[in-house]
Specification:
single chain, alpha+beta, 60s Ribosomal Protein L30, Chain: A, four-stranded mixed β-sheet, two-stranded antiparallel ribbon, 3 helices, globular
Length: about 140
């Protein structure tokens, strides 16, 4: 069960690939996910293309959510930091396909922010998130 409700006022038009707002319903717990880049478990950057790095960064976000006992549908918000907005736009179709392999048809509220650089000099994208987990969710990898 999701503890989120998508809020999309008609006066704003239909959003494409995101929700204008996500309402946390009673009984949920907030999980703040630190910005994730396309690092593997050894903190080595993987993925040559923007779309590949996006996929790995988003997968890392979901790994944190799953470690706390959640699923993709519990993600309420994504903040996506990119070093080159034009690269994101050029690969938008591939990014969308990779997004759906991780998140399915769940579209939380999102923001895209272009910045000059990220922690790892080769990183093209970083994704920060907020999730709302069911109160009874059991953490899988949390001590």
């Amino acid at each position: 069960m999701s503890y989120l409700k998508s809020i999309n006022p008609e006066s704003l038009g239909a959003p494409r690939g995101y929700s204008n707002g996500m309402l946390a319903l009673p009984g949920g717990r907030f999980l703040c996910i630190a910005g994730q880049i396309a690092w593997d478990k050894n903190q080595v950057l993987v993925g040559e293309t923007f779309a590949d790095q996006f996929h790995k960064a988003l997968s890392n976000v979901l790994t944190v959510v799953q470690a706390a006992g959640g699923h993709a549908e519990h993600v309420a918000q994504l903040t996506i930091y990119v070093t080159d907005k034009s690269e994101y736009l050029e690969q938008a179709e591939a990014v969308g396909a990779k997004y759906r392999t991780v998140m399915g048809r769940h579209f939380p509220s999102m923001a895209l922010i272009e910045i000059s650089s990220l922690l790892d000099p080769g990183a093209k994208v970083e994704i920060q998130a907020l999730a709302v987990l069911p109160a009874q969710a059991e953490a899988l990898d949390v001590p």
